[in-house]
Design brief:
about 240 residues, alpha+beta, Arc Repressor Mutant, subunit A, Alpha-Beta Plaits, 3 domains, four-stranded antiparallel β-sheet, 8 helices, transcription, cytoplasm, YebC-like
Length: about 240
C-alpha cells in the first residue's frame, strides 16, 4: 500500500498549500457535524473525528470554535452530503465528495469541471465499486510490527500496518476509525500526520506525461470548488 499512502500524502501537502480554502471547508464540515449531533466533541464522535482530521491540516482552534458556536446558534443552514463519480483521461477514475447547501449549483460546477478538463461525469456507482473505504493513520515511528500486534490485541480489524520512511502507516476498517485512533493515542501517539477515511483504489493506473498534465488540471479544478470536501482517484503519480 505504499503508493496509496504516497498519493494521500501528496494530496494532503497540496491542500495545505491553499490553507485558507482548507480552513473554510473544514469550518463547514465541523458545523455540519456539530449541527447534526451534540456540539460537544467529547460526546459527538463524528465531530471529534472531523476536528482530529482538521488538526492534521493545522486548522486553527478559533476556526473550529467559530464553526461549533455557529452550530449552537440559530443558524438554519442545511447541507447535503453528495458523492459524484466520473472519469478522467485514459481510464482514470474519480470520486468527488461534497457538502453543499445548493445541490443544483454543486452538480453543475462538478459537471463543468469534468467537462472542461478532459473528463466526464458517470452515474452513481460507476467507479466506487473499484475503491475500498479505508481508515488511514500516519504518525512518526518505525515499530510497525509492535503497533500491529497492539491493535490486534484490542480486537480491531486492521488491514495493514507498514513503515514508510519515518512514518508508521495504519490501514483499518472505516467503522473502527475512532477506536483505532484512541488505541494509538493510548499507546503513546501524540500527533498524527494523517487521520482520514479515504476511498483507496483497489488498482492504480499510470498515465502518460500528457495525460498526467490533463488529469492534474481536472483534480485541481475539482478541489478548487467551494463545495468539494475530498477528491479520490486511482492514478499513481510515481514513475
Amino acid at each position: 500500500m505504499g503508493r496509496k499512502w504516497a498519493n494521500i500524502k501528496d494530496k494532503k501537502a497540496a491542500k495545505e498549500a491553499t490553507s485558507s480554502k482548507v480552513f473554510a471547508k473544514f469550518g463547514v464540515e465541523i458545523y455540519v457535524a456539530a449541527k447534526q449531533g451534540d456540539p460537544d466533541p467529547k460526546t459527538n464522535r463524528k465531530l471529534q473525528s472531523v476536528m482530529e482530521r482538521a488538526k492534521t491540516y493545522n486548522v486553527p482552534k478559533h476556526v473550529m470554535d467559530r464553526a461549533i458556536e455557529k452550530a449552537k446558534g440559530s443558524s438554519d443552514e442545511t447541507y447535503s452530503e453528495l458523492r459524484y463519480e466520473g472519469f478522467g483521461p485514459n481510464g482514470a477514475m474519480v470520486i468527488v465528495d461534497t457538502l453543499t447547501n445548493n445541490v443544483n449549483r454543486t452538480a453543475a460546477e462538478v459537471r463543468s469541471a469534468f467537462g472542461k478538463n478532459g473528463g466526464n461525469m458517470g452515474v452513481s456507482g460507476a467507479v466506487a465499486y473499484m475503491f475500498d473505504n479505508t481508515a488511514v493513520f500516519g504518525f512518526e515511528g518505525n515499530e510497525a510490527d509492535a503497533i500491529f500486534e497492539m491493535l490486534l490485541e484490542q480486537d480491531l480489524e486492521i488491514r495493514d500496518v507498514m513503515t514508510e520512511g519515518d512514518q508508521v502507516i495504519v490501514y483499518a476498517e472505516p467503522e473502527d476509525f475512532h477506536s483505532v485512533q484512541e488505541a494509538l493515542k493510548a499507546d503513546g501517539v501524540t500527533e498524527f500526520t494523517v487521520a482520514e477515511v479515504e476511498m483507496i483504489a483497489q488498482n492504480e493506473v499510470s498515465l502518460s506525461e500528457e495525460d498526467i498534465v490533463t488529469f492534474e488540471k481536472l483534480i485541481d479544478a475539482l478541489e478548487e470548488l467551494e463545495d468539494v470536501q475530498k477528491v479520490h482517484h486511482n492514478v499513481s503519480f510515481e514513475n
